[in-house]
Amino acid sequence: MQDLSSDLMGRNIRADDVQARFDHAHALTRQILEIPADHALCFLPASDTGAVEAALWNLLGERPVQVLAYDNFGQLWASDVRDHLGLDAEVLEAPYGALPDLARVRPDCDVVFAWNGTTSGVRVPDGTFISPDRSGLTICDATSAAFCMPLAWDRLDVVTFSFQKALGGDAGIGAMVLSPRAIARLDRFVPPRAIPKILRLRGPGGFDRKLATGAPINTYSILTLEDWIAALEWAQEIGGLQALIGRTRSNFQALSAWVGAAPWVDFLARNPGSRSETSVCLSFADPEAATRAFVGRFCALLAEEGVAFDVESHRAAPAGLRIWCGATVETADIVAVGPWLDWAWSELTA
């Protein structure tokens, strides 16, 4: 808190001084993430979830839809598309730790997918499964990938993320990047449904272009905004996107070296080419140990020693561990936690 500017706390969110901070955050986000100049960047309410929902509600319905569901959030987006928007979507599913058959992705469909499965430890290896000649839109939930992995901007039409995941800020604000193709869809397509105000991307003439300047839809937390600016300025100081990606890969390589030497644990994602480098999910080699109760005791031991917190797998995923290896983590800490994980295992299985 001492490092965050608090001069504007309590000010009107549309005051000139506050809007200047939004402008600064908007420009820094574009710079650090290397967003193409012809793409629009919007800030939206309700973190990445709000950004994804805004994309689904405003853009879908013009053509067939496919959803890739290989983690908890992909399953949620599939449910929203089918059950709440009432669209007859094709859902390409895969169990936790695996990807669906990407060869089944159709260029004539709108495709909704996560670049990185936050709860499954699996990511798409690149964007080559997306046709450069597609007629549909690609809507990509990139919340645990943006700032830590290269994104194929030429294959992505809508990219969403939050202020929280990759750079460790507060989660109150989400972001959406729109390609010219996505903006053209907003300009011509009138969704056959009512859109709540906090999700509304269109004005009377199509895409509300004020959003592309960083203008807020509703009242955001200025403290959250200052937290985001602090994270972006740190990213800028250490060398920008390539430095962030490098730190992430270094962390993942350190954890991978430990996993390779630990006989009691393995990656949930068996295919090395699709393993997440940020939300790394691990499974126990002994099936009898793979229970929620065991994982709870395992994680409690680590927390009591103050060496690792919140490393239990997501509640919807198989019982196991999830280690964050994103750019805000120091590689030395990843190296240091390995022996503690071995210790917790030996304590519970000796």
How are the SSEs ordered, and which strands pair?
Layout: H1 16-33, E1 40-45, H2 47-59, E2 65-69, H3 72-84, E3 90-93, E4 110-114, E5 116-117, E6 122-123, E7 138-141, E8 158-162, E9 173-178, H4 180-188, E10 202-203, E11 206-207, H5 222-238, H6 241-261, E12 265-267, E13 279-284, H7 292-305, E14 321-324, H8 331-349
Parallel strand pairs: 2-3, 2-4, 4-7, 7-8
Antiparallel strand pairs: 1-9, 5-6, 8-9, 10-11, 12-13, 13-14
Task: Provide a concise account of the structure shown.
This protein has eight helices and 14 strands. The strands form four sheets. Strands 1-9-8-7-4-2-3 form a seven-stranded mixed β-sheet. A three-stranded antiparallel β-sheet has the order 12-13-14, covered by helices on one side. The chain has a two-stranded antiparallel ribbon with strand order 5-6.
Summary tags:
alpha/beta; about 350 residues; three-stranded antiparallel beta sheet; seven-stranded mixed beta sheet; about 15% strand
Give a description of the structure:
The chain is an alpha/beta fold and 350 residues long. It has helices at residues 16-33, 47-59, 72-84, 180-188, 222-238, 241-261, 292-305, 331-349; strands at 40-45, 65-69, 90-93, 110-114, 116-117, 122-123, 138-141, 158-162, 173-178, 202-203, 206-207, 265-267, 279-284, 321-324. The strands form four sheets. It has a seven-stranded mixed β-sheet. The protein has a three-stranded antiparallel β-sheet with strand order 12-13-14, with helices on one face. β10 and β11 form a beta hairpin. The relative contact order is 0.15. The model has no long low-confidence stretch (mean pLDDT 95).
